[in-house]
Amino acid sequence: MGMPLIGDKFPEMTVVTTHGVMNLPKDLKGKWFILFSHPADFTPVCTTEFHAFQQLYPQFRELNTELIGMSIDQIYSHIKWIEWIDANLNTKIEFPLIADHGQVAEMLGLVHPGAGSSTVRAVFFVDPEGTIRAILYYPAELGRNFDEILRMMKGFQLADKEKVAIPANWPNNELFGSDVIVPPARTVKDAEARRGKEGCLDWWLCHRSI
Ligand code: BEZ
What we know:
binds benzoic acid, Glutaredoxin, alpha+beta, three-stranded antiparallel beta sheet, 10 strands, Antioxidant, Horf6, Chain A, domain 2, 23% strand
């Protein structure tokens, strides 16, 4: 089996975390979750990332979304690093962190050629049915933008609920502000009905407020 892709089910796995053993995605059925990897504990960019992600954790929980970190590190290293972050940055990491021996990284395709033996900075967005909805890969030298990760989660949930699509830079799109995109017409009759309709620049480009 190759690396999972968008639309695949998240592979079933039993993992050891700082909160105990978890079975993924089974234990989180009914919730969204974001599994993100980092290259290594006690490294500067990763430390800034954990601090940033924890700041947004309450907002993710409001979105019925759990966070799970992971790297190829021992559980003792994770525990010491989390203690360090708390003691030095006054940030309690509340989400679990997987201690991987390489199996999780292998299943998710997290060690890339040319990037050494550590995991890249990956982000998997998984929906309440266990389906992978998006995957991001960043290299070690570039920390992630967690506001964008939050925006993506809000976008997925809105798109699912309203059966719409999300425009560029939403909710501050340069053309349509916070409006969303109505799916294009699929029949000639629908296309004709949309011409000249409010919110439609053409039959295939309609937006609406939410
Ligand atoms: C960092 O998190 O600072 C880092 C991790 C691995 C390689 C380079 C930088």
